[in-house]
Design goal:
This protein folds into three domains: 3-58 and 93-199, 2-Layer Sandwich (Beta-Lactamase), CATH 3.30.450; 244-360, no CATH class; 365-524, 2-Layer Sandwich (Heat Shock Protein 90), CATH 3.30.565. It has 524 residues and is of the alpha+beta class. It has a five-stranded mixed sheet with strand order 9-11-12-14-13, covered by helices on one side. Helices cover 52% and strands 19% of the residues.
Length: 524
């Protein structure tokens, strides 16, 4: 997942969790508030009912005209009285007033209440399970009892508080054995709170909807800001890193601001500048290293060159000395002059090869025969190969477009390395052939070989296993660099005590049109 996705997902997760916790806490808080209000409502209703009952008791009950709705209470000793005019009045004691007020309250939806007792006079006032538990708690000294119940309309708050016997209550209850201060029962009040659950659910839905809208809006804003402030600058920086220094000569010009991305851009620009300077210094050092390796190789060729020159010189001196002794001998001059000419040409050819090898020039692509170049190298290295059996298997034998001096550098460095690995002599096999659109050069020796650990380092600059003064450690490094400049590859296979095999693969190009050095194209 990209960094942008992770960031947005984290923000959405945090906001969703926050709104979820807020919704749960709000729902819990609303529930506690509703229950608290219902409890306060039940307590107030309890006090009002108790005061009403006390007022009725203090006035020895209420008397109503007997009607179909106002019927006598069969549980009273004197349920009715008749006035002097013959009007029948029915008595209402506090229990009856409480029951009828509850019926009115039930019809209005405010709740309902009733009197209950563990020893009810009216069987209809027998306690239910909640009321029985309440009556037991009152005997233990508890002042009130509350619980949340459930009915067909939803949740309800059940509230019960004790009814204490007053002096005015003894008119009706003295015969039941009660005394002032006794708990003769309880007032049970039920407050419906199902409406509150509907209200809470509506609030929670609104909070969740607003939370979802807020999360989406925050995610959209974060996405826009992330794209503008992070993704785009990083993308531009990534593009600059991808093309530098290959397709971009100068360090990239990245946007600058005062944020962390700008600091990263500044650091990358400074890194590019240091890298450019390092590459220039490395290129200069590489050119110096190439030239130093050529000079070192020339030093190794000195003995062979001296031999190639001294042999014809010695013969030429003998011819000159003999001719001086017999200046009149024309037959002798005719015989020796061609020998002198042949010796001079051989010296000229040797010196030309030596000068060409030591020349420092950029790659010059021209049509050459690689097999011929290899033979020239072997001829130039003739003295170093005097104790070595050379086997040739040159089967490329075709013209291709390549730098002949680069091929000479590669072949001579590898062969010189092979001759140093065979100080007591051995066999050197040089082969060439075309393979899959490339020329494959193979140079195999029967020398001391290279260990596995050394094979990983032989192409490193200045790495050598020779004694001090016997090598610079640049030969194979220069060879690798030259092969890479030609677009090729070089690998080595070796076994200690058996020998080494170097394989050079170079791409074949036959499309160059020029045939003379003056018109040849330059590459590299």
């Amino acid at each position: 997942m990209p960094l942008k996705g992770k960031f947005i997902l984290a923000v959405v997760a945090i906001l969703t969790l926050s709104y979820g916790v807020l919704a749960l806490y709000t729902s819990h808080l609303q529930n506690r508030l509703i229950i608290g209000q219902a409890e306060q409502q039940a307590r107030m209703l309890y006090r009002q009912i108790v005061l009403t009952r006390q007022w009725v008791a203090d006035h020895q009950g209420l008397f109503l005209i007997q009607t179909e709705a106002a019927r006598p209470n069969d549980f009273l000793n004197e349920p009715t009285i008749t006035t002097d005019t013959g009007l029948t009045l029915v008595k209402r004691n506090p229990a009856m007033v409480t029951r009828e007020l509850s019926e009115y309250a039930t019809r209005t939806g405010l709740g309902w209440f009733r009197v209950t007792s563990s020893k009810p006079v009216n069987p209809a006032n027998a306690p239910d399970a909640f009321e029985q538990e309440s009556l037991r708690s009152f005997t233990d000294g508890q002042a009130e009892h509350l619980a949340i119940g459930q009915n067909s309309e939803g949740r309800v708050l059940r509230y019960a508080a004790p009814l204490v016997t007053e002096a005015s209550c003894l008119t009706c209850h003295s015969e039941h054995g009660y005394h002032p201060g006794d708990i003769r029962g309880a007032l049970s009040i039920t407050i419906p709170i199902g409406w509150a659950d509907t209200f809470i659910r509506s609030n929670n839905t609104t909070i969740l909807f607003l939370g979802l809208v807020s999360v989406l809006a925050a995610a959209a804003v974060m996405l826009l800001l992330f794209n503008r402030l992070v993704t785009r600058p990083i993308h531009r920086l990534s593009q600059a890193m991808a093309v530098f220094p290959g397709q971009m000569a100068e360090p990239p010009d990245l946007p600058k601001s005062k944020d962390e991305i700008s600091h990263l851009n500044t650091s990358f620009t400074a890194l590019c500048q240091r890298l450019t300077a390092s590459q220039q210094a490395l290129a200069a050092a590489g050119e110096q290293g190439f030239r130093a390796e050529k000079l070192a190789a020339l030093g190794q060729l000195t003995a062979g060159i001296a031999h190639e020159i001294n042999n014809p010189l010695a013969g030429m001196l003998n011819c000159v000395k003999t001719m001086e002794e017999e200046p009149e001998n024309l037959d002798l001059q005719k015989r020796y002059l061609p020998l002198l000419r042949q010796g001079l040409r051989r010296i000229e050819l040797t010196m030309r090869q030596l000068l060409n090898y030591g020349r420092v020039e950029p790659l010059r692509i021209q049509q050459v025969n690689i097999d011929t170049v290899i033979l020239d190298c072997l001829e130039l290295l003739g003295y170093q190969l005097k104790d070595i059996v050379v086997n040739l298997d040159l089967r490329f034998n075709a013209l291709c477009c390549i730098d002949s001096e680069a091929i000479k550098q590669i072949v001579m460095n590898i062969i010189l390395n092979a001759t140093q690995a065979m100080p007591e002599g051995g066999h050197l096999t040089v082969s060439s052939r075309e393979e899959q659109g490339a020329v494959l050069l193979t140079i195999e020796d029967t020398g001391v070989g290279i260990t596995k650990e050394q094979q990983d380092r032989i192409f490193d600059p200045f790495f050598t296993t020779k004694e001090v003064g016997e090598g610079t450690g640049l030969g194979l490094a220069v060879t690798l660099a030259m092969v890479q400049r030609l677009g090729g590859q070089i690998t080595v296979r070796s076994q200690p005590g058996v020998g080494s095999t170097f394989l050079v693969t170079l791409p074949i190009d036959r499309h160059c049109l020029t045939t003379t050095p003056n018109d040849s194209s330059t590459r590299g």
